[in-house]
Amino acid sequence: MTIYDRIKMLRESQGLSQQELATRLGYKSRSAINKIELGLRDISQSKVEAFAKALNTTPAYLMGWEDKISSYSDDELDQKIIEVFNRLSEEKQKQALDYLAFLASQD
Q: How far is CA 64 from CA 19, 28, 58, in A?
């Protein structure tokens, strides 16, 4: 998996549009993100760090140097979960809780 694939996968898994990610990173339009995800545009080392921060992961994960998506502390992970959960509609929150309960019952 390339850095471009990882960026796209993380963006989509977090429910971000290309425009939302572009805005977070200071790009003027979503086309820059589209070109990056397609591997048509390289990104500098400083942009790798910015992408990692915007996508809540590490530069090492984006570069393929580690398999772990992120290296959050427990408090950071709790905060991120709450942040994402609060963006969901009430119905989606119920679905998320039901799914987590299902996953927990599988262990």
A: 24, 27, 10
The runs of H, that is alpha helices, within 1-107 are 3-13, 18-25, 30-37, 45-54, 59-63, 74-87, 90-105
**Dihedral sign of CA atoms 54, 59, 64, 65 in order:** negative
Residues 17, 5: Cα–Cα separation, whole Å: 15
> CA 23: distance to chain centroid?
14
Q: How far apart are the first and last CA of the chain?
A: 29
User: Considering only CA atoms, which of 41, 43, 33 is closest in space to residue 8?
Assistant: 33
**What does the alpha-carbon distance between residue 11 and residue 38 come to, in Å, rounded to a whole number?**
13
pLDDT top residue among 50 and 83: 50
Model confidence pLDDT, tens digit, residues 5-59: 999 999 999 999 999 999 999 999 999 999 999 999 999 988 999 999 999 888 9
Q: What is the CA radius of gyration of the chain?
A: 15
